[in-house]
Specification:
The chain is an alpha/beta fold. The protein has two domains: 9-164, NAD(P)-binding Rossmann-like Domain (Rossmann fold), CATH 3.40.50; 171-293, N-(1-d-carboxylethyl)-l-norvaline Dehydrogenase, domain 2. Helix content is 54%, strand content 12%. The chain contains eleven helices and eight strands. It has helices at residues 17-28, 44-48, 57-63, 74-84, 101-113, 143-153, 168-196, 201-228, 238-254, 260-277, 287-293; strands at 9-13, 32-36, 52-53, 66-69, 92-95, 117-123, 136-140, 158-161. Strands 3-2-1-4-5-6-7-8 form an eight-stranded mixed β-sheet, sandwiched between helices. Helix 9 packs antiparallel against helix 10 (260-277). The relative contact order is 0.08.
Length: 294
Amino acid sequence: MTTHQDTTTVAVLGAGPMGQALAGALLDRGHDVVVWNRTATRLEPVVARGARPATTPAEAVAQATLTLVNVIDNAAATAIVDQVGEAASGRTIIGLASDTPDSSRELQSRATALGARYLGGAIMTPVATIGTEHGSILLDGSEDVVERHRTVLEGLGAISWVGEQPGTAAGYDMALLDFFWTSIGGYLHGAEVARKAGIDAASLLPHALGIVSILTPIVTDLAGRLDQGTHDDATSDLESISASLDHLVHAAHDAGLGADALEALRRVTRRGVDAGHGKDEITRVSFAEAAALA
């Protein structure tokens, strides 16, 4: 990206791969960057590029208009905000750890109690995308605060404000990562079933990509059904899905594999069938109800 003409002092707390990417992208845009990390040696790559090291989180925040906190989780972020103390007053702090909505709300509460303007954030794309148009960061909290810092933040990637309610960005984060990792787990499990049948991953790949390609229209249809509460006129009803899951579970067991995820889905579809919804779409099932009955 080209260097931006206006310089802002930004503090980046946390120097893991993502923290270093955030600091590097800000440096590339010509911003003054102050960095802190519990293990100071991890700051060396970004300090070599021009970032200024701070000895404490409070020292970093006191010098900055905007602070990005990117550490392992919100427990670590909360501990850092507590160390910042009164230096947080009047500053904008954005929490970018990947964690639960409840922990994000707790962090927001701690930061605002210190007088900070707090935004909850979620980085939805890999390290390599930061500083490019392919990066994606979701933010919740005051829209006015987001807009105040938008020019700086857009140097990191596409910025999406998802609402005032604390924990909203984390809710998106957890839901989308649930979808992502469940999908990756399904692929790896399916590849192992294939391997047991003498099919290597390269041979399976074009067919797996075919499955990926049909997910977009399917998920689009399911999203509409979920929001509208319409489950009839199914293209694939619960009875047929339940029968298919029986076969998949048996195939996994025949291959000597566990099938926990498939069995969990089979349980909720069977409950739907037993409740008289066998001809309805899979959106009829409720994982929340199944968990309550377990």
